[in-house]
Design brief:
Blueprint (H helix, E strand, L loop, with lengths): L16 E2 L2 H9 L7 E6 L5 H7 L4 E5 L6 H8 L5 E4 L8 H5 L6 E7 L5 H11 L4 E7 H7 L10 H9 E9 L4 E2 L6 E8 L8 H11 L7 H4 L5 H9 L14 H10 L3
Parallel strand pairs: 2-3, 2-5, 3-4, 5-6
Antiparallel strand pairs: 1-8, 6-9, 7-9
Helix pairs in contact: 8-11, 10-11
The structure holds S-adenosylmethionine.
Length: about 260
């Protein structure tokens, strides 16, 4: 069985396959895959996106949790000798170990993600610290949150976390009609290009500060950061014309970095 006409889609795995060739082609074109790139694909599905990636990349290592897709994937990808499919839960897989046998210059992640685990997947990719670029399909509203502007309701600790590591841009919106089965939400393809920065003296302290600052969304910094050295924080905020009555949603990433750096010593 190489086509999906008899396949029973599993909602619990977020199985909505992308069958629009224009969109598939566009995702890969906009990924600007360079020579010597190993692409990690999370959630191979029937292998439709994998085919497009494999025709450009040096290697594709695809992860798929659902072993009942094996025959379909095999048939769709049998002409490619640069593809390995790992039938494991990506969140549990030892990715570093799996990549050891390959010789490559760049690692990108290109994927139509299973939406129920979008954030844990991105967190794992950041922790692995190997991917220079991510081009991923996500739920449209989630994509808007990644790039939310300061002061808007979508601006939160995840926005800051992601914008610290990546330059984020939207590649395109994708209608729900491009998928089988048709999901209840629209999607967007978002591209993340890794920054290699060293402006935070301690990333740990920065992200703890950000998480604590957003702990209670309606509260201001004075109330959310009771256990911190508030005098130091106020001194830094003054530079930006702000004080401790400000809420986290009105503090930029650069300001958080400055506050965090000044907490040291
Ligand atoms: N890439 C395919 C496409 O574009 O048509 C399929 C995308 S579909 C939205 C997500 C895929 O991720 C499904 O095939 C699903 O079985 C798989 N998946 C779900 N959870 C996973 C996990 N934890 N690890 C690896 N794959 C997973």
């Amino acid at each position: 069985m190489s086509d999906i006409s008899n396949f029973e889609f599993k909602k619990k795995f977020g199985q909505n396959f992308l069958k629009d060739n224009n969109v598939l082609n566009n995702i890969v074109e906009k990924s600007d895959i360079e020579d010597d790139t190993l692409v990690i694909e999370i959630g191979v599905g029937a292998g439709y996106l994998t085919k497009y990636i494999a025709s450009k990349a040096k290697y594709v290592v695809g992860f798929e949790i659902d072993e009942s897709l094996k025959a379909i994937i095999y048939n769709n990808l049998k002409d490619f000798n640069n593809v390995e499919i790992v039938y494991e839960d990506f969140l549990k897989a030892n990715v570093t170990e799996i990549l050891k046998k390959y010789d490559y210059k760049h690692v990108y992640v290109i994927a139509n993600l299973p939406y129920y685990i979008t954030t844990p997947i991105i967190e794992k990719i950041i922790e692995l610290n190997i991917a220079e670029r991510l081009v991923i399909m996500v739920q449209k509203e989630v994509g808007d949150r990644f790039n939310a502007k300061m002061g808007t309701k979508d601006y939160n600790s995840l926005t800051l976390y992601l914008n610290y590591y990546f330059k984020i841009s939207k590649v395109m919106d994708v209608s729900r009609n491009s998928f089988i089965p048709k999901p209840n939400v629209d999607s967007a393809v978002i591209r993340f290009d890794r920054y290699y920065r060293n402006d935070a003296k301690s990333e740990n302290r920065l992200f703890t500060l950000i998480r604590d600052s957003f702990q209670f969304k309606r509260k201001n910094l004075r109330n959310n950061l009771k256990n911190y050295n508030l005098e130091r924080i106020e001194n830094t905020l003054k530079k930006y014309g702000k004080d401790l009555t400000v809420r986290a949603e009105n503090i930029s990433l650069e300001e958080f970095i400055d506050i965090s750096n000044n907490l040291e010593g």
